[in-house]
Design a protein that fits this description.
mainly alpha, Rossmann fold, 2 domains, 5-stranded mixed β-sheet
Length: 540
């Protein structure tokens, strides 16, 4: 087996100490607070309101790790416990929530910097930090109470310590990541398998693998590889606790069916994998970085004045990055009913670091290209792309929240005791005042969405409600780039439907539009339902 000295070094000596890290963490936190300032008091959005905030509030109010105000999804409780602790110290409010999440984002960005600084250079680290911070998915998730950002930060720090041969610290970080989100278990499992496979191959082809430096460190015996699996013990304990309390290991049966039982289809896997590749390499102008990297790969390495080639990231480090990226792409094409870009937050920075390092190594005046790429990220952050996307992936989520604030306030003022027809998540916004939308609960009649099928069913029972709060649940671009057959796959596997426009819904319900607002392609409207006797011809 080759010795350590025979291989390219894993890490460079370009790093910073703990004191400098603490200062940088505070600077990053201050910068995030400043750039996210207009968002800090906004009420909760979509999945925040639907699960994570209710679960954290239940922990704050009742002290129970199992949610009582919503069905348990068996998500590990670390983030919810963190939010409950923040509310306990500073009070329950969106401002406290979003500030607490921004601190997690600062911790994650510091991890990006430290990791890039050690495997590449300070210049690559600074550029990678800026690119990651400005990438629309990361920027938007930096203020949102979802599990993925916390898991990403802990994973990146775990990878940092793993590459630094500080295995105990890596195991602790991976264990905490698993308690932030269960899919973080992919990382220690992938590293464990990679070490065993690479070691087995190295025993047969040591000269070949020594040449490309992809063998695991010989200082780690097989028992050391198995030690990585210790990071899964806290997650297993959580699932055992959840089963003892609820009778379900992986959440309520519907949640399990949606996220695994209904996803085991080869056609769906291929469609989801294609979508994952798009999310990772092209989405939200990420193609600017990946295309620039592809062009750079056609160029020779730059030569310094002293005649030395600009160094690349060690091949073993690159191999580890690629293993983690590939495992996430494959596993997250199977796991999860919703194929959301935020699930890839743990590996976006790995892509950024590799790409930026390649630009530095091969592209003349590479900082200028990085600046153009960052400008592209900023454009994607504030604009609507010509394809369907989740509003949580750029600042469209803030438009959604502001629209619903206005519509919910109108409903609370004009129909405080009347039953209101609507769909989730507005149903939670109206019935849970502590989400920040209404001063007191409004009675509702809930439907699944605003598709033609649902509205036809609601029209037959319009005597059961006085008004309807309708809104866009899917983002429809003005000029949609269409891929033949893709919409049919979305309808079959990913729950896609078309929302009817508010004017047509009003006609079908025998109602009139009494409130309406639109921001970009997102809209919201309140319809007042008239009695059948008073429905006039002009409504049709």
């Amino acid at each position: 087996m080759p010795t350590t000295s025979a291989r390219a070094p894993l890490l460079t000596k370009s790093t910073i100490g703990n004191r400098q890290s603490a200062i940088l963490l505070l600077l990053l936190f201050a910068g995030l607070l400043l750039t996210h300032f207009p968002l800090l008091r906004l009420p909760y959005f979509w999945d925040e309101a639907g699960y994570y905030i209710p679960a954290a509030r239940d922990l704050l109010v009742t002290g129970t790790l199992i949610p009582t105000s919503t069905l348990s999804n068996a998500h590990p409780p670390l983030l919810m416990a963190y939010l409950a602790a923040a509310w306990k110290m500073f009070g329950y409010s969106p401002l406290v929530t979003r500030s607490a999440i921004l601190l997690v984002a600062a911790f994650t960005l510091l991890g990006v910097y430290r990791l890039a600084c050690r495997v590449a250079s300070a210049g690559v680290a600074i550029a990678s930090l800026i690119c990651t911070a400005l990438y629309p998915v990361f920027f938007s998730q930096s203020a949102m109470a979802h599990l993925d950002l916390a898991a990403a930060g802990l994973i990146l720090w775990g990878v940092y310590f793993y590459l630094a041969d500080r295995r105990f610290a890596a195991i602790v970080l991976f264990a905490l990541a698993c308690l932030a989100k269960e899919t973080a278990a992919l990382v220690p499992l992938a590293l464990w398998a990679w070490e065993l496979i690479a070691r087995a191959i190295a025993n047969r082809h040591s000269s070949i693998l020594n040449a490309v430096s992809v063998t695991p460190s010989p200082d780690h015996r097989i028992t050391g590889s198995f030690a990585l699996l210790l990071s899964l013990v806290p997650l297993a304990a959580w699932f055992a606790f959840h089963y003892a309390r609820t009778g379900h290991v992986f959440g309520n049966p519907e949640f399990f069916r949606y996220n695994l039982g209904a996803t085991l289809n080869p056609v769906r896997f291929l469609a989801a994998f294609a979508l994952r590749l798009w999310h990772l390499l092209g989405y939200m102008n990420m193609f600017l970085l990946t295309l620039a990297t592809a062009v750079a790969m056609s160029l020779p390495p730059r030569i310094s004045i002293s005649g030395v080639q600009t160094p690349a990231i060690a091949r073993r480090v690159q191999a580890i990055f690629y293993v983690l990226i590939a495992v996430h792409l494959v596993a997250l094409s199977i796991l999860g009913g919703a194929v959301l870009a935020r699930y890839l937050l743990p590996v976006y920075p790995l892509v950024v670091i590799v790409c930026v390092s390649t630009l530095r190594r091969r592209m003349p005046r590479w900082p200028g290209f990085v600046a153009l790429i960052c400008a592209g990220f900023l454009m994607a952050l504030v604009s609507e792309p010509p394809y369907r996307f989740a509003p949580e992936d750029n600042l469209a989520w803030s438009d959604y929240v502001r629209l619903h604030q206005s519509a919910d306030a109108f409903v609370a003022q004009h129909y405080p005791a009347g039953r209101v027809l609507t769909a989730w998540p507005a149903s939670d916004e109206l019935t849970r005042p502590w989400l920040g939308y209404v001063p007191q609960a409004v009675p509702i009649v809930r439907i699944e969405d605003f598709s033609a099928e649902q509205i036809i069913g609601a029209a037959d029972a319009r005597s059961n409600y006085r008004a309807a709060l309708v809104f866009s649940t899917k983002f429809e671009p003005r000029h949609l780039l269409r891929v033949p057959g893709w919409e049919r796959l979305q309808e079959r596997f990913f729950g896609y439907h078309r929302d009817l426009p508010p004017e047509l819904i009003a006609r079908m319900l025998g109602a009139r539009v009494v409130f309406g607002q639109r921001l970009g392609q997102q809209w919201v409207a309140v319809l007042e339902v008239e009695s059948i006797e008073n429905v006039r011809l002009e409504h049709f």
